[in-house]
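Minutes, methods subgroup
Present: GH (chair), OT, SY

1. OT presented the first of two proteins processed in the latest run. Sequence and structure tokens recorded below as shown on screen.
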Amino acid sequence: MYDFSKVIEKSPPQLEFEDFFTSLKSLCAVRKGKPGQKFNLEQSDKRLCFILFSGTGLVKRVNDSLVLSTIHGPCIVGLQDIFHVKSDVQVSSTSEVEYSLVVASDLFSWAEEKGLWKNMCYMLMLSSTRFSEYQKETVGVSNYELICNLLYSLNKESFEIRATTTALEYIQTRSMLSRSGIMKTLSSLRIGGYITISKGLLIKINSLPKKF
């Protein structure tokens, strides 16, 4: 899935991010949040940016709660849809987090004042690159390929997520596939020895066939 950290780990401009987020703390107060908190990106008709300094969360589509991405601090959510009339995403924390909510226009003014537009552009370029990968994984693929991609994604998640989220739940919240269709495919893969599942949790991917 759209995991911002996958790109950061393979990209060189680490210093750009460190400077950017260190400086950001002078703009906004850093708050602490608990797992399960939800954050809307609008307040009093003003567009907000969610700044995640540490911790993990999910970005969900507002109209149907479809999970669009997993995020790890440090990152920013809210710049990607700034030209929409209303924000179409919501953030929910999956761990304890350190975060801030900043009015988008204030963030732009701050970047201009501090000369940090280049740093912000790196953030957007990385988001754009990873979103392109997300589209390759989810758009124009068969239902089976989508399930496989999401199984691989689940397998790369943190231990906490893998230990508390069933494969069915993970796939269903990140796709428009039916519950029965997902269960049928998972059952067939388990019986065939391609995956190991215990109490609904993905334990191991042995080898997923290209076609099934």
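2. SY then presented the second protein from the same run.
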Amino acid sequence: MRDWTHEEHTEATRREITRMAESLAGGDMSTEVRTCPGWDLAELTAHTGGVHRWAAAMVRDLAERRYDRETMETGLPARAQDRPGWLAEGATLLPEALLAADPDAPMWSWGGDRHVRFWSRRQLHETVVHRIDAELALGVPVSVDEDVAEDGVEEFLDILPHARWSPVAELRGAGETISLQADTGAGWVVTLDPDRFHHARSLQPGTVTVRTSTAADLLQVVWGRRSADDYAVEGDAGLLAWWRERAVI
């Protein structure tokens, strides 16, 4: 797995915003997004572009607190068909804010890394996952670069303990392990301890092991974008179901 810089995360974010906007252009914005229940493509686009502008504002200000995203003025177009173009504008707006800031500058974040660099990585994978949502809804082929996907799985595991609004506190155990393995060579093992869980890069099997073809497939598994019928499971399937119900962001 490669080591990413803030600048590389930012450039990859720019590409992903553009890819998502291009996927949406000309599409039926009333199409249901089954991986985000209750949303259609218009709402998915509004959410994603709104998050980009919210993050950009906090980075520009080196915010010491969370801004209220719901009350921010984002310039969201009223007409749904204009929203892909509005989303595409974020490919300039967000990277400009990220690259203008010192990646080591302290600021608010909801993750463990309370620096600007948290946001370049977080916005990359926020965008990747929602591009996947859009492409699944549109019925077009989904692809994610393997190095992006590997970093995305690692980021999910890094930030999961900080998702205090989900049932993460229940993810405890007596040493059981969940192994996530891709045929391309990417692999992680999550260990459930009595007081916490932790993860490490490893190719070892676990109490339960998930096997997929690629890290891109694993990314969709951990973010709940793949059903249990879409990947191979070895070992305690009940443990995996229990983990998946609680390991949510």
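Chair's summary of item 2: The radius of gyration is 18 Å.
Next meeting: continue with the remaining queue.
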